[in-house]
Amino acid sequence: MNIELSTEATDYGREALRALEAAGGDDLVRRVEHDPSLRQDIVAPILAGLGAWDLDPRRDSDELEAAAALCRSVGYWTVPYPVAERLARPSDLDVDGLVVVADSDPKAPIANLDLRWVAVSLDGRRSHAVARTPSTPPRMSAFAAQLVLEPIDDNGAGDLALALVLPCWTLLGMLDRAMDLTRSHVLLREQFGAPLARLQSVQFQLTEAEVERSGLDVLAKYTLWSIQAGNPEALDDALALRLAAVEAAQIVFRIAHQLHGASGFCDETTVSWISRYSIPLRRIPWGPSGTLDALTRTIGRRGLTGLFTPTIERALL
């Protein structure tokens, strides 16, 4: 079992990072929040220029790994576009993207986009989905919208694992950036004549956050391998990854906000934007408790295999 991404996928993710930075970096999300039409008019063409829509993660392992690397780069720069959802599009329907939805109050971060969507629930039921216009501005909704669903008479259980995993890679990219920003902040900010980074309490907090982020990194790679290998437990692993991702995000963003102080909640601070736009990924289709419920209902009494077992056993105690 080799869970490391290929050199080609890693290089592609690195080039995507550079291209997104050159296209505006942190300024992209600010511009799109001010003018949501730019989501379709500017962000989508930038991604097309990176070859994003030529990727088919269902075709082979190389394209799956490249898709994951792209999602991570998109998360790093908080690009306000549902890249993971578009890359997860099913191969048997003529649609532009796929979202996983809860059984009640289905939502997805796909507002202000003229695209064709399909939604899939945990039991594999698929529906054509249309996003309602959000009743709140992007600053409050982060482009999350309620969906109107029209059921399709088929089963999309095979779509679930990929559609759950790719958004976790986007969230992982956000945690990468939150950690980078927080490290830089505590190295530059001084208290009592010395950098905050020299305080033992700060070092402990940074270590806790990095353990969560690096652990999620390993789990994300393992789950990608599980999908590549065609494991029958791939959906179990995907749900376990989502649970680990939302729990890691809670810890990392809590510590990032605390170490930034009051400025960490202000729009002048980049970590505030990242935290706000991570909320749909952390709450849709389920938050921590909903994800844990979905996982326990799916695995029943058979338990988990692989890297997830100790983590989930602790969560279930």
Question: What report would you give on this structure?
Answer:
By secondary structure, this protein is an alpha+beta fold. The protein has three domains: about 5-85, no CATH class; about 95-155, no CATH class; about 160-315, Up-down Bundle (Butyryl-CoA Dehydrogenase, subunit A, domain 3). The protein contains twelve helices and seven strands. The strands form two sheets. A five-stranded mixed β-sheet has the order 1-3-4-5-2. A two-stranded antiparallel sheet has the order 6-7. Strand 3 and strand 4 form a beta hairpin. About 45% of the residues are buried.
Our Rg estimate from Cα atoms comes to 19 Å
What's the average pLDDT?
Answer: 91
Instruction: Please tally the helical runs, counting DSSP H or I stretches of 4 or more residues.
Output: 12
Please tell me what the overall shape is: globular
Query: How does the helix and strand content classify structurally?
Result: alpha+beta
Question: Which terms summarize this structure?
Answer:
317 residues, alpha+beta, Butyryl-CoA Dehydrogenase, subunit A, domain 3, two-stranded antiparallel ribbon, 12 helices, 7 strands, 57% helix
What would you say about this model in short?
The chain has 317 residues and is α+β, with helices and mostly antiparallel strands.
List the helices and strands and how they pair.
Elements: H1 7-22, H2 26-34, H3 38-49, H4 61-76, H5 83-87, E1 97-100, E2 107-108, E3 117-120, E4 125-131, H6 138-141, E5 145-155, H7 160-188, E6 190-191, E7 194-195, H8 200-228, H9 234-260, H10 270-283, H11 288-299, H12 309-316
Parallel strand pairs: 1-3
Antiparallel strand pairs: 2-5, 3-4, 4-5, 6-7
Helix pairs in contact: 1-4, 4-7, 7-8, 7-9, 7-10, 8-9, 9-10, 9-11
